[in-house]
Amino acid sequence: MRNDQIVLLLTTLMNGEKSYSSAECAELLKMSPGRFKKELRELRAVFEKNGFSIEGKTGRGNGYFLKIHEQKKFEQYLYGELPGEEKKDYNDQKNRIRRILLRLLSLGDQYIRMDDLAEEMMLSKSQLSKDINSARMYLEEYGIQMINRSHYGTRLEASEAAIRLCYANIIANDVYVDRNGCIHLNSESSGIRMKLEEIKEVIVEKAEEYQYQLSDITIQNLSMHLYIALIRIGSRNQIVLDLETMDGLRTEPEFLLAEAIVKEIEKRCDLSLPQEEVCYITMHLSTKKIVTNENMDEDVMALVHKMLERVYEKYGLDFRDNLDLEMMLGYHTLPLLKRIRYHTVFHNPLLKEIQMNYMKAYDIALCACEVIGEQYGCTLAADEVGYYTLHFKVAMDGLRTDVRKNILVVCSSGRGTAELLRVNFQRRFGEQIDRLDTCNVFELKTRDLSGYDCIFTTVPIYMQLPLPVFRINTFFDAGSERTIQHVFEKKQKETARDCIFSRELFFTEIEAETEKEVIHKMIQRISAIRQLPEQFEEQILAREALQSTRLGELALPHPNGVMDMDEMVSVAVLKKPVLWGKQPVQLVILMAFGKDFRKNNEKFFDFLLSLVNDRKRLKKCITEASFDAFLELYQEME
Questions:
Q1: C-alpha R_g of the chain
Q2: What is the DSSP letter of 59?
Q3: For residue range 7-26, what is the model confidence (pLDDT) as tens digits?
Q4: In this predicted model, which residue has the larger pLDDT, 235 or 605?
Q5: Would you tell me how many other CB atoms lie within 10 Å of the CB of residue 363?
Q6: Residue among 429, 432, 435, 348 nearest 386 (CA)
């Protein structure tokens, strides 16, 4: 029974002047009487725990009624822990699949029949069948199998760690970063928000007590993992770790902090957590720690040198003597190796923007990460590559010149983003800056501000400060630059081409069965119009082999490495969708770009990002399938 259905049932029984028959309750909740009775039995223990019960009497004129045993518990459950679930558009496939995934993950060892799931989700059987296939592919990425059994239905089979990781990443997809770099969580209820904030409060309090430094993103991720752990423990699903792993985790310096966090949560939630859960929290802390020079590892730095050597061989970019880059890569790699060992991933809420805004730097980071994959027999997740991208972007853009002002930049997205902001300031306004420092909101409270002229921030600041404060965007949009220009009393001119799309490279007649076939047919058509390097197709396929260039329902194939050719963009609206990686794609934008392509085509990348984020915009490109309609959408970006 969905939360909104529970709310409807409780408020009806609470406000009604009579009892309600099973048929009346079933009609109210849009389900069969048999299903209503079954789900009511399943929820009995939950209701009792929260101070009430729904009881029934048989016979003429009788039915179900609400009996409240503990008013305070009941009100907290009804008005705090239950929804309103935020109204999502269930005509949108992503929202439907998310809802299906969360329902399947909540099953435990129980089965659910597809007919019942379709009724519960208010979907047709044919629509559910399509969505279930997408859900199955998503689950398989975490090693979770959907088991079907005749006359029983479907359930999931996986380790508890895999279930939790999948659950965490579904919730993490509800994390969004606004234009000012501030991280938000689209929770399903005020009760969830309350728990997350309370858990976050415990983590921050104990980290300060143990003098343990955590980034804002790490705190957000750990809060979600702990929240999910509490949900799973509440439904009697505990993490399972072997003795050797537990013994190793007990020796980690983070174990004492994990114990302190668990004790405080036990105290606040009135429950007891087993040692496995303490070790599980230790694992998350140790794999996301902020590394300093004192605990840097020689083997890690040797690995970093190999990464920079690979980048030099492939791209001709020599960062081998860039000590700052070496150290930043080392800082990220040391905890990454623990994440590889424990099969965890550090979620990156900025990934989509990083992939779109820093495409070349992302490819360079992907090239460097091949070295880690080869040495440890794994493929790094896109989230991890995104963090490396920020460091390579800093190295690519970092130029220091004569300076004048002292400024402080406040952000909440971690060391890589802070470094990226610092370099963007130095590169674009370096002649105006004498000193530039970065910090997060927590550090701002105790920082000495006497040496600064002003503060630029990507997050809201709710405190009185003795300096002027200016809001900017993490990724330096036009508005942010105007703000900074105004502060520095300097105007800059930007160059941009009016349009990089051409009618002759816009294709609508391509039919294919695979992504390789799409690429081959596009290149055939392009080569009939433009001269392409001999290994152009080979290099595009090599890039796809490293990691899919699909972003949402859009594919952006491009060469793997630098090629001697003019910049070029070609668009294909396919006759029918093609599986690209594991998701269907019908709009393909194939491109080759040079050194200054990103700088000279800001509008182009803003347009791509709008297609990824706005499904209606993307669908319009596909359904109208004409160059003029596509160009009109592009020109709307003015």
A1: 27
A2: S
A3: 778 877 875 567 888 888 88
A4: 605
A5: 25
A6: 348
